[in-house]
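Good morning,

Attaching, inline, the backbone tokens for the sequence recovery test we're adding to the shared suite. The designed sequence is right after.
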């Protein structure tokens, strides 16, 4: 069973509370999403392997540590996932970036694919899937399936807010994928929105309706 990691750092929770406020405008919403994403990826990558290397400082030679093992790839789910990319790449500038385009059918609530482009060497990378909201879990599950179909194996899912229904869907469909969230909210409403949530992340991010 995939693990759920709740990243409850005070800075993350403070910024998330501002994002939840219906009066927070698109500009501030974008900035906060970028900041929270950077704080979250710091925790998500805590267990990345390192290796000892020799470095010459201005004083002398010394042993130090650098990242080793698999390289990183990030895969935002369009469109709201785009708002998390800059925060992640500020900490991991060498990460390759893929994109998966999905939208949720307003009637069936099922994901519909319209775009998928991943790094050519995805099978050799630790892939971090980004989407602010994990609601029904349908879009995230489909995105992870697309990655696996293209030989991606090491996958982590990062969301700001998750509903129990979405978590259950990912654990059922992809028990090998760990989930990292800033908040686990109460439930979904009859329209498939997270309660209390923060509304439609894509619309608030880009100022659309």
């Amino acid at each position: 069973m995939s693990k759920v990691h709740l990243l409850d750092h005070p800075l993350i929770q403070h910024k998330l509370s501002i994002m939840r406020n219906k009066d927070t405008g698109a500009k501030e919403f974008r900035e906060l999403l970028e900041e929270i994403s950077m704080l979250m990826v710091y925790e998500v990558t805590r267990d990345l392997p390192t290796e000892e290397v020799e470095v010459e400082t201005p004083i002398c030679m010394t042993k130090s540590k650098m990242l080793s093992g698999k390289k990183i790839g990030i895969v935002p789910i369009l469109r709201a996932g785009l708002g998390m990319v800059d925060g992640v790449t500020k900490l991991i500038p060498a990460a390759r970036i893929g994109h998966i385009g999905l939208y949720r059918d307003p009637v069936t609530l099922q994901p519909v694919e319209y775009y998928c482009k991943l790094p050519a060497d995805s099978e050799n990378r630790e892939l971090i899937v980004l989407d602010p909201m994990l609601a029904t879990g349908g879009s995230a599950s489909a995105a992870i399936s697309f990655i696996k179909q293209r030989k991606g194996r090491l996958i982590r899912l990062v969301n700001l807010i998750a509903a129990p229904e979405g978590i259950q869907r990912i654990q059922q469909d992809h028990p090998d994928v760990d989930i990292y969230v800033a908040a686990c909210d109460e439930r979904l409403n009859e329209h498939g929105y997270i309660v209390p949530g923060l509304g439609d992340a894509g619309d608030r991010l880009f100022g659309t309706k």
